[in-house]
Design a protein that fits this description.
Largest sheet: 8 strands, parallel, barrel
Strand content: 5-15%
Helix content: 40-55%
CATH topology: TIM Barrel
Distance between the termini: 57 Å
CATH architecture: Alpha-Beta Barrel
Number of strands: 8
Number of helices: 11
Order of helices and strands: HEHEHHEHEHEHHEHEEHH
Mean pLDDT: 97
Structural class: alpha/beta
Low-confidence stretches: none
């Protein structure tokens, strides 16, 4: 059985919840795929959780291609979606298509773009080129400077209307799914009701067709997780304990022990 396709994801709307999670390297991508998620997102959030940058603005196409390639080699069942990084699709339709193509050649099954009405023409061009697109509306981290920070969306009627218009524009442009981030639950629910394509929430409530979270938030590796994330494990604690035990055994001369070494062959007579 190969990876899930656009048709598989579309069929899940109204049928069962879609599960998406991020992964940025081979070992974690292999694990989340084995856990049975439906979509693996190679998110530009890697700029912060992997590289320690203050925002996603520092992520380049070369970085996304490298990480997408690593994730793609690990994933067997889930759909692999790769983020198009900051300034990789805003300039022209041609630029958008060429950069989307780089991510597909690296192993992505689809690409994700942030924005709504203002990027609908880019989404249309990418889809026409044969590349599936996931939209991303509500809080769009690549535009946090214009938004005035990572603020909640859809709190007012005016803002809610803008987000709904963005969603409709993306669907009309050919996106097969839309991520809705940090948006009022009522607004996300209304968008989910109006659209024929699946919606996937991150911090936008219970009524989307699916949910997505950053892996590092889920497993307890994030230094400052967002308020809408839930930690399901404390991997940071396990790593600390393991490395401290290793360091202690090295300093005491307990590691390596006999089972971890090999010896010269005994002289043959």
């Amino acid at each position: 059985m190969g990876r899930l396709t656009v048709r598989d994801i579309l069929k899940m709307k109204g049928s069962r919840k879609i599960v998406m999670i991020t992964a940025y390297d081979y070992p974690t991508a292999k694990l989340v795929d084995e856990a049975g998620v439906d979509m693996v997102l190679v998110g530009d959030s890697l700029g912060m959780v992997v590289y320690g940058f203050p925002s996603t603005h520092y992520v380049t196409m070369d970085m996304m291609v490298l990480h997408t390639s690593a994730v793609s080699r690990a994933v067997k069942r889930a759909m692999v979606v790769a983020d198009m990084p900051f300034l990789s699709y805003e300039h022209s339709r041609r630029e958008a298509v060429l950069n989307a193509g780089k991510l597909v050649r690296a192993g992505a099954d689809a690409v994700k773009l942030e924005g709504g009405v203002e990027i609908a023409d880019k989404v249309e061009a990418i889809v026409k080129a044969g590349i599936p697109v996931v939209g991303h509306i509500g809080l769009t981290p690549q535009r946090y400077l214009v938004l005035g920070g990572y603020r909640k969306r859809g709190k007012t009627v005016e803002d809610a209307k803008r987000i709904i218009e963005d969603a409709k524009a993306l669907e009309e442009a050919g996106a097969f799914a839309i991520v809705i981030e940090f948006t009022a639950e009522e607004v996300a629910a209304e968008i989910t009701r109006r659209l024929n394509i699946p919606t996937i929430c991150i911090g936008s409530g219970r009524y989307c067709d699916g949910q997505v979270l950053v892996l590092h938030d889920v497993i307890g590796l994030s230094e400052t997780p967002p308020p809408f994330a839930k930690r399901y494990a404390n991997v940071a604690k396990l790593i600390l304990e393991a490395v401290r035990s290793y360091a202690e055994e090295v300093r005491k001369g307990l590691f390596p022990s006999e089972e971890h070494v090999f010896h010269m062959e005994k002289k043959q007579s």
